[in-house]
Amino acid sequence: MNDYIMRLEGMTMRFGGLTAVKDLSLNVPKDSIVGLIGPNGAGKTTVFNVITGFYKPTSGKVFFKDRDISGKQPHEVCSLGIARTFQNIRLFGNETVLQNVMIACNVRLPIRWWEPPLLLPSVFKKERTIKDKAMDLLCKVGLEDLADEAATSLPYGQQRRLEIARALATDPELLLLDEPAAGMNPRETHALMEFIKNIRDLFGLTIMLIEHDMRVVMGICEHIWVLDYGVLIAEGPPSFIQSDKKVIEAYLGEEYARYVNG
Ligand SMILES: Nc1ncnc2c1ncn2[C@@H]1O[C@H](COP(=O)(O)OP(=O)(O)OP(=O)(O)O)[C@@H](O)[C@H]1O
């Protein structure tokens, strides 16, 4: 196996007459934190939707650990080890913080519908294991004191953290974060950057994120791909991306370039 955990090979995604992503190829190194950036409508979330099986690519292939997973269903992709969060937080609103994580643990520790009515000791054991795993995850992400709170009563930054904890409960090797810093204040954003680096190290993950906040992208990503109208216009480390003329014109803007270059 090579050192790339995920690869896209000439991936194109069309919606009717609109080409949302065109002939995209990229290799994501294992254990890295990488970013996908570009203007609104550039095709970034579509890339995540293709990787996670929400969309079947019009053409091209998705490889995860050298296995072709193009067109697999979202639950299969999740079982294989790819988890994601969404641009708009999607928690189970009526459930507690702990229950939100416990539900996701079911991917690895399934309890069949017919098991609980039989009151089998094995079910209680499995439930205990799931609860312990969920609590352990909450401790690792610093939400253990809020375990019994309603998920949607949490402040915004902590809801995002819970969404990540829930994704981690599926034991992913690749975690896709769609605009994790959206709506956060500068203090929360700074904490989020440390958090993302910590969970990568703690869980031995590879993390790919879509983000408009350039402090986050340039601060933690080791490699960045830039899309514009579905086309890859640049890729490289942050230092290269922020001085690339095409990227400045299409996305970052002259003001950003002046700010970065002093
Ligand atoms: N299911 C769909 N059906 C039709 N068009 C779609 C669908 N999903 C995405 N698109 C279109 O594909 C293009 C890319 O959308 P996408 O959401 O991937 O962009 P994005 O880069 O994630 O944008 P943003 O930064 O605003 O989230 C847009 O023109 C969008 O309207």
Structural overview:
With 262 residues, the chain is α/β, with parallel strands linked by helices. Helix content is 39%, strand content 24%. The chain contains ten helices and ten strands. The protein has helices at 44-51, 74-80, 97-105, 121-140, 156-168, 186-203, 214-220, 238-241, 245-252, 254-260; strands at residues 4-15, 18-29, 33-37, 59-64, 67-68, 82-84, 174-178, 206-210, 223-228, 231-236. The chain has a six-stranded mixed beta sheet with strand order 6-7-8-3-9-10, with helices on both faces. It has a four-stranded antiparallel beta sheet with strand order 2-1-4-5, covered by helices on one side. The chain starts with a strand and ends with a helix. Bound molecules: adenosine-5'-triphosphate. Adenosine-5'-triphosphate (ATP) binds at residues 15, 18, 20, 38, 40-46, 87.
Biggest pleated sheet: 6 strands, mixed
User: Structural class, judged by helices and strands?
Assistant: alpha/beta
Percent of residues in beta strands? Answer: 15-25%
The CATH top-level class label of the largest domain: Alpha Beta
Residues in helix, % = 25-40%
